[in-house]
Design a protein that fits this description.
Structural class: alpha+beta
Protein name: Glutathione S-transferase
Mean pLDDT: 95
Strand order of the largest sheet: 2-1-3-4
Keywords: Transferase
Largest sheet: 4 strands, mixed
Domain GST C-terminal: 86-207
Order of helices and strands: EHEHEEHHHHHH
Domain GST N-terminal: 1-81
Low-confidence stretches: none
GO molecular function: transferase activity
Strand content: 5-15%
């Protein structure tokens, strides 16, 4: 059985859990990370030298990096609707997964650390204001895109890209600051909320 190492409150672990729910893949999860088993031990570092969750073990195969993990699981156990096999369709899914992990993730970093984690190193008012503005700019890109698709990130059907993007939208809505109105993002979030996998893992790791 698939072994998942990581705490359920981690946004990157939740990507993996939600993916498993979408493909009906059974797993066993172990609590690793802050507040649980430490990731800086020789045992964990032998699996991931970055000392970060999630890590999976599938038989004798060990893999880290959340987006690599969900792509692997969808390719091995999923179907072409979730993660297409045709090159151009797959590239569109990958484009938005990579956008989430690079551009969107980077934009929210300061605001999230300041407003949610209350990090003393992230309390500069000007940097916070700039961070919120940058985050809003990228979310407006997503809103315009969802207006054009009318449903999910790459079109009418839910795909693997909607898992990291959907979790990012959850983080956007759960962070306490003055957000611009994004009607297409709001509609998209409600659409995701009807999926059993999202109800299990989409809201900060709690049903």
């Amino acid at each position: 059985m698939l072994r998942i190492l990581g705490k359920a409150s981690s946004i990157n672990v939740r990507k993996v859990l939600w993916t498993c729910a979408e493909i009906d893949l059974p797993f066993e999860r172990e609590e690793w990370g802050t507040g649980f088993k430490p990731t800086d031990t020789p045992e964990f570092l032998a699996m991931n030298p970055n000392a970060m969750v999630p890590v999976i073990q599938d038989g004798g195969f060990t893999l880290w990096e959340s987006n690599a993990i969900i792509r692997y699981l969808a390719s091995r156990y999923g179907n072409a609707t979730l993660y297409p096999t045709e090159a151009r369709a797959r590239a569109m899914v990958d484009q938005w997964i990579d956008w989430q992990s690079s551009d969107l993730n980077r934009s929210w970093s300061y605001a999230f650390m300041s407003l949610v984690r209350h990090s003393p190193l992230h309390q500069d008012s000007r940097a916070l204001s700039a961070g919120c503005a940058d985050w809003s700019r990228y979310m407006q890109i997503l809103d315009r895109h969802l207006q054009s698709t009318g449903a999910y990130v790459v079109g009418n059907n839910f795909s693997l890209a909607d898992i990291p993007i959907g979790l990012s939208v959850n983080r956007w809505l759960e962070t306490p600051f003055d957000r611009p109105s994004l009607p297409a993002v709001s509609d998209y979030y409600q659409r995701l909320g009807r999926r059993p996998g999202f109800r299990l893992y989409g809201c900060n790791g709690t049903p």
